[in-house]
Amino acid sequence: MQNCKTYTIQIDQNGLADYIGKVNVSKTGRYYRTLSRQEKTELWECIKRNDVFNFTGFTGNAGEDSQMRLLVLVKNGVEKKLSYGELAPKILMNVEAKIEEIAEAGEWQKR
Fold it and tell me: Are 26 and 7 in contact (CB under 8 A)?
């Protein structure tokens, strides 16, 4: 668990991303950038394709020592919170992979 990435990224529907890197990440502190049209499209298509807003299944908590994640999605004022671990279903891991890709790409500006 020592090498677990700890960061928060918030992306609004317009593609404005706010990133706070804490530990074991390529950038620490607060950063922001606007996603490209392609990134926005790919992210929302991934969320839609994996039907995340309707997901109600097992979220894969492997115990208190597992690496836990929190995914919060807001669409049209409706918030969906999913807390899950390393054994999460593939649909959640697909969305997480897309968010991770966004976090590591692009020209982030320090706040």
Answer: no
Q: Which residue has the tokens 């807003």?
A: 53
pTM value is 0.82
- Can you identify the CATH homologous superfamily of domain 6-110? Mago nashi (3.30.1560.10)
Interhelix angle 37-49/90-104, rounded to 10 degrees, is 170
Which conformational region is residue 56 in: left (phi greater than 0), alpha (psi within -120 to 50 degrees), or beta? alpha
From CA 68, how far away is CA 89, in angstroms rounded?
A: 13
Angstrom distance (rounded) from CA 13 to CA 44? 9
Task: Please state, in angstroms and rounded to a whole number, the distance separating the CA atoms of residues 96 and 76.
Answer: 21
User: Nearest 5°: phi and psi at 41?
Assistant: -60, -45
| pLDDT tens digit sequence for 89-101 | 888 889 999 999 9
Separation CA 19–CA 111 (nearest Å): 10
